[in-house]
Amino acid sequence: MSLPMAEQPHLPLFEDWSPQMGIADCGDSDWTPPRRTTCGKLPIHPGAMGIQFGQSVFEGCRAFWNGADPARLFRIDEHYSRLVTSCERLRMPVPPEQLFVEAVANQLQDATSWSSPFPSDTLYIRPVVFGQDDHVMPIPSARTTFVVLTAPLRLFPREPLVLFAEREFSRAAKGGLGHAKTSANYAHQYLPTWRAKEAGCDAVLWLDAETHERIEEASTMNIFMVIGEELVTPSLQDTILPGITRRSVITLARERHGLKVVERPITLTEVAEAIEDGTLTEAFTASTALQIRSIARIVDRERNIDFPQETPWMDRLRRDLDAIQRGEADDEWGWITEVPVL
Length: 342
Ligand SMILES: *Cc1c(COP(=O)(O)O)cnc(C)c1O
Hints:
Order of helices and strands: EEHEEEHHEEEHHEEEEHEHEEEHE
Oligomer: single chain
Strand content: 25-35%
Largest sheet: 9 strands, mixed
CATH architecture of the largest domain: Alpha-Beta Barrel
Bound molecules: pyridoxal-5'-phosphate
Distance between the termini: 30 Å
């Protein structure tokens, strides 16, 4: 007899992509309508800008389906506007919004997207846009491909995170790509992430590139801390990815709970001191794939910064977000788009 998913925490978050994908191409600024095809290999030149020079951007979205009602797609308009920012930063043609939403909806409508390689009520959606031109030199691509992949997601309570404070490498510098969701933002992470895992940590804590003192992000998650009576999160700048989960948490905290949310720089020194004097009571991360997760510890060279284990604010915010996504609470801010599953 198989255990319910919640009791199998050793299973990975994802296994593989759903069997079908959506695809559209852009020639000279004209996009084809989205087509459906078997998820798999595409004919692509190895010199394509997307492969050779990292001209590639993506999104990560989420949808819920209870198996009966229409599927609930979360904040797709926000994902589209971030995709526009990312494409523009890399000088790429942007898929029109209608095409983008249609391709995502097609994926959700297909019941097999939710059932293979394993059945799930939550679908992770990965739109990708990449340059197809195969120039010898790094020139922005005129021919561009847009694909929408999906993958069923496993949800169950996960262990609090242990973060490795990265004092040598940096994620993003001022004027760089940190605020755009580009593949290039991930290329530099493999080595630091591997080192963090070697040190027994789950993820990298990224600090600012200039001083390595200010907290920016945790791997691919935004960061929140409860300090005194305030929910504090690093202020957005071009070195920080503007997470949609981050934004949703801020809205929930402010508008539903009247909690004061402050966006400002947070240093590691302040965090260590605020834990010491008892004013820092909670720390957690926010992202689409991992949703909201607590931080247990930051390993910073020889010292360990340990966080309190009780997380009442985090628990409340996570429940609120989950209830909206699942249709168990009012969609007060119009975050949900319903898509019938055929
Ligand atoms: C995608 C991403 C996030 C989280 O953003 P969400 O919109 O909440 O999923 C945070 N940091 C980085 C670097 C990311 O790529």
